[in-house]
């Protein structure tokens, strides 16, 4: 009689632990998969200058970053240099009210373009087109005045 | 009995699961630490950059443009793209009209468009040194930079149809003239005969004041991207 009880307990335990173990194993896998889905993914948009880790559901914004001159600066010379960062090997187009200038960013995404301003306020449109045909745009306001401020 | 149960438990809860949990916990902790360090460094860099910007703003002349909405005491309130800005002026501030003549503050009126040049103080107040009345057209840039594909090009007139890459439902009828500058992406000068249907170009255009739905192009840059073309390429049959 004791032998039968013992066998029944063992079989019950095998069945119970088997079901429980399987449930936990499946639950662990699902949790791991969920974590993988929402984890940040590395992007190689600016690989050479910095390694950035951005969430996969990041907010989209212009990839053109103008380093100098600062927006709304008053310059005393017509010729100036626009320095900035964007995606590597992109075509950069700078349009002042009267002229257009273009060049390419280098493999680090850096660009450095000489332009000539009109007298007074210059509302400048800057466009960048990368090798995947993505166009990004930004604006820059510069004033050229020879008057001493 | 206990030994047997322990043995059975170890069979159904393999070490691998616990090992995975431990690794995952350690990995998450490392990631959190890395994120924290990254955030701290980014915050500090931003602070340093902001300080540099603030100090340079105090010494670099800046400009503000907008339409006068109110003049009171030594302040002018202007609006620009629904954004309101306050300009302070003093006895030293010079006022200039559209014809570049010196005027007095009393000549300024609401609705006039002004260009104000001066400096920001340490409290971010803008102190104008020179205020110039300008026309609203002078602060506009009517140029549009369109990146698209040539859908058609006229052999008899200098007109081409451009379909923007961003919006394939739109098309621009673009008219070039002898002043239109055509270059490749390396800056080499091209002639209009080098342009072909299907070619990707960047066109800097302005709406034609006389002809509706037509744009005058001042600058064309040919562009060869690495991406594959969406349009099928016909293959000759053998």
Description:
- The complex is a heterodimer of chains A (149) and B (238).
- By secondary structure, chain A is α+β, with helices and mostly antiparallel strands.
- Chain A has one helix at 2-38, and strands spanning 41-43, 52-54, 65-68, 73-75, 79-85, 91-95, 100-104, 110-116, 120-129, 135-144.
- Chain A has a five-stranded mixed sheet with strand order 4-10-9-6-7, with no helix packed on it. In chain A, strands 3-5-8 form a three-stranded antiparallel sheet, with no helix packed on it.
- The N and C termini of chain A lie far apart (107 Å).
- The model of chain A is unreliable at 29-59 (pLDDT under 50).
- Chain B has 238 residues and is α+β, with helices and mostly antiparallel strands.
- Chain B has a five-stranded mixed barrel with strand order 1-2-3-7-6. In chain B, strands 8-9-10-13-12 form a five-stranded mixed barrel.
- The longest helix of chain B is centred in the N-terminal third of the chain and has 45 residues, at 15-59.
- Chain B is flat, with a radius of gyration of 32 Å.
- The model of chain B is unreliable at 14-24 and 227-238 (pLDDT under 50).
- Chains A and B meet through helix 1, strand 6, strand 7, strand 9 and strand 10 of A and helix 1, helix 2, strand 1, strand 6 and strand 7 of B.
Write the layout of secondary structure elements.
The complex is a heterodimer of chains A (149) and B (238).
Chain A: H1 2-38, E1 41-43, E2 52-54, E3 65-68, E4 73-75, E5 79-85, E6 91-95, E7 100-104, E8 110-116, E9 120-129, E10 135-144
Parallel strand pairs in A: 4-10
Antiparallel strand pairs in A: 1-2, 3-5, 5-8, 6-7, 6-9, 9-10
Chain B: H1 2-12, H2 15-59, E1 62-72, E2 75-80, E3 83-88, E4 94-96, E5 102-103, E6 113-120, E7 126-134, E8 144-153, E9 159-164, E10 172-175, E11 181-183, E12 200-207, E13 214-222
Parallel strand pairs in B: 3-7, 4-7, 10-13, 11-13
Antiparallel strand pairs in B: 1-2, 1-6, 2-3, 4-5, 6-7, 8-9, 8-12, 9-10, 12-13
């Amino acid at each position: 009689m004791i032998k039968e009880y013992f066998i029944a307990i063992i079989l019950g335990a095998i069945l119970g632990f088997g079901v429980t173990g399987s449930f936990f194993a499946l639950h662990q896998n699902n949790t791991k998969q969920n974590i993988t889905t929402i984890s940040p993914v590395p992007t190689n948009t600016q690989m050479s200058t910095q390694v950035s880790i951005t969430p996969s559901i990041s907010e989209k914004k212009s990839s053109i970053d103008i380093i100098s001159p600062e927006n709304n600066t008053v310059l005393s010379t017509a010729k100036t240099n626009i320095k900035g960062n964007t995606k590597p090997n992109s075509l950069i187009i700078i349009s002042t009210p009267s002229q257009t200038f273009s060049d390419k960013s280098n493999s680090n995404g850096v660009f450095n373009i000489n332009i000539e301003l009109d007298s007074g306020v210059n509302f400048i449109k800057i466009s960048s087109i990368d090798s995947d045909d993505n166009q990004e745009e930004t604006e820059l306001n510069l004033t050229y005045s020879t008057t001493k401020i | 009995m206990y030994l047997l149960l322990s043995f059975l438990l170890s069979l159904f809860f393999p070490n691998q699961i616990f090992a995975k949990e431990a690794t995952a916990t350690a990995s998450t902790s490392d990631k959190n630490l890395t994120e924290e360090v990254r955030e701290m460094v980014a915050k500090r860099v931003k602070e340093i950059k902001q300080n540099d910007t603030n100090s340079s703003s105090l010494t670099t002349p800046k400009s503000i443009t907008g339409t006068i909405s109110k003049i009171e005491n030594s302040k002018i309130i202007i609006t620009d793209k629904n954004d309101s800005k306050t300009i302070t002026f003093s006895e030293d501030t010079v006022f200039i009209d559209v014809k570049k003549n010196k005027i007095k503050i009393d000549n300024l009126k609401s609705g006039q468009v002004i260009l104000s040049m001066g400096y920001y103080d340490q409290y971010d107040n803008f102190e104008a040194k020179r205020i110039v009345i300008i026309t609203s057209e002078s602060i506009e840039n009517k140029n549009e930079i369109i990146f698209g594909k040539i859908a058609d090009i006229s052999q008899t007139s200098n007109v081409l149809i451009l379909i923007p890459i961003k919006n394939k439902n739109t098309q621009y009828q673009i008219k070039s003239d002898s002043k239109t500058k055509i270059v490749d992406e390396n800056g080499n000068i091209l002639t209009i005969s080098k342009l072909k249907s299907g070619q990707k170009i960047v066109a800097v255009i302005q709406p034609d004041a006389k002809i509706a739905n037509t744009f005058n192009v001042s600058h064309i840059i040919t562009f060869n991207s690495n991406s594959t073309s969406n349009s099928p390429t016909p293959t000759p049959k053998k």
